[in-house]
Specification:
Helix content is about 25%, strand content about 15%. With about 260 residues, the chain is an alpha/beta fold. It has one domain (about 5-245): Rossmann fold (3-Layer(aba) Sandwich). A 6-stranded parallel β-sheet has the order 1-9-8-5-2-3. The protein is globular, with a radius of gyration of 17 Å. It starts with a strand and ends in a 17-residue tail after the last strand. Bound molecules: the ligand O=C1O[C@H](COP(=O)(O)O)[C@@H](O)[C@H](O)[C@H]1O. The ligand O=C1O[C@H](COP(=O)(O)O)[C@@H](O)[C@H](O)[C@H]1O binds near residues 42, 76 and 159. Hydrolysis of 6-phosphogluconolactone to 6-phosphogluconate. This is 6-phosphogluconolactonase.
């Protein structure tokens, strides 16, 4: 696993714009070298802010939207079209305004889908969808995502991995159902830490004063069961994208960087 790197922007608007620019470059580079790119989206305010910034960026037209696979890190297990579903919010922020290939948009199941209210069956079906997309080098688990984004919650949760709940302890399955989440809605579907760690790059997004405590805890050596954000890392890069407010309680040894 890679060691976290930090980039701190002045405010959350700038953070969203800079992260969107970074994502455009990543996608364009992956498409140039491999023919397609694979990105995992996050829900939450910071993730949706990034998507809105991407929608407003003229350079978005550099992306070949038809050769982009989109997955989700987690979903609120609600009916299709519910305004609180992460996919609904992503569609509003960006996806409805770009020419994606619908077959490459892998939304997580809804609570009124083929598995009804059975969140475990819904999670298992998403795991199967991921496994079908994985290549032989991925050992049948999940594709090697180019970038996997995670909004960091004020309690250090990422995706729907909440402190101390069973999902954050999962070591075998790639996707699990969550019940009793402390943030509504209580029932969710989430990638697990093993699936997250299969990504080439993991980007953690934290903007706003309410994220300052979470960033400080996760980056100060906390365990992943107590602070799930501490366990999120990419194979080749782990990037924390913060604004100054979210970085305000980081230990001096981490930020600002020591001068030579
Ligand atoms: O519920 C969720 O919350 C987190 C963080 O959201 P934020 O609004 O505090 O930024 C998000 O990462 C996750 O995908 C989402 O389902």
């Amino acid at each position: 696993m890679s060691t976290p790197q930090l980039v701190v922007h002045h405010d959350k608007e700038l953070m969203a714009q800079a992260a969107a620019a970074r994502l455009i470059t990543k996608i364009v580079d992956a498409q140039a070298s491999r023919g397609y790119a694979s990105v995992v989206l996050t829900g939450g305010r910071n993730g949706n802010g990034l998507l809105a910034a991407l929608a407003a960026a003229p350079a978005r037209d550099a992306i070949d939207w038809g050769r982009l696979d989109l997955w989700w890190g987690d979903e609120r297990f609600l009916p299709e079209g519910d305004a609180e579903r992460n996919v609904t919010q992503a569609r509003e922020a960006l996806l409805d305004s770009v020419p994606l290939d619908p077959k490459r948009v892998h939304a997580m199941p809804a609570s009124d889908g083929p598995w009804g209210a059975d969140v475990d069956a819904a999670a298992a079906s998403y795991a199967e969808e991921l496994a079908r997309a994985a290549g032989p080098e991925n050992h049948g688990a999940v594709p090697t995502f180019d970038v996997l984004m995670l909004g960091v919650g004020p309690d250090t949760h990422v995706a729907s991995l909440f402190p101390e709940l069973p999902a954050v302890r999962e070591t075998e399955r790639t996707v699990v159902g969550v019940r009793g989440a402390p943030k509504p809605p209580p029932t969710r579907v989430t990638l697990t830490l093993p699936a997250i760690r299969a990504a080439r790059e993991v980007w953690l997004l934290a903007a706003g004063e309410d994220k300052a405590g979470a960033a400080a805890i996760a980056l100060s050596g906390a365990g992943e069961i107590q602070a799930p954000a501490a366990g999120a890392a990419g194979r080749s890069r782990t990037l924390w994208l913060l604004d100054a407010a979210a970085a305000s309680r980081l230990p001096r040894s981490l930020y600002p960087p020591a001068s030579p």
